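INFO worker-7 received task bundle
INFO bundle size: 2
INFO processing item 0
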Amino acid sequence: GLFSYDVLIHRNPHIIMVMGFSLDSNLPDSVSAVKQNRVYKIPDPDVFLRPGPRIIETIEELNRIFYDKKS
């Protein structure tokens, strides 16, 4: 759901997934996801927001985001 930056900062998530707007934000470096460079822009929000047969694409995208090692 939607909530304010204050709530986001208070919850201090390890991963942030951004849909529909720029990754440029004013999140402080104290947020774990920012500190660990784990803020991700979702390239096709429809895959995540519309249930249906494309759920496999959603699972594959989440797997890539969460588990692929960056070199």
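INFO item 0 finished
INFO processing item 1
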Amino acid sequence: FRRVLFRSGICGQCQIALPKDIYDRLPKPDQAELDTLATSLDPPKYGRLACRLTPTSIFRGRTIDVYIPFE
């Protein structure tokens, strides 16, 4: 996902659904990410854009669901 638009967060194709505890520990999304997430028809409750996140140890051993719209 990162290579498509160079982490711009404008296409919204890399939405992921995070467990709440991970979502709460991440930095808050900036306005550009919020705007992109707002365009989704049915966004995941604890959704973020994968292209805007950096994998860290808080993700270790956890399952992250990739959001696929219209499925």
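INFO item 1 finished
INFO post-check item 1: The beta strands are 15-17, 47-49, 65-66.
INFO post-check item 1: Helices lie at 2-5, 20-25, 31-38.
INFO worker-7 idle
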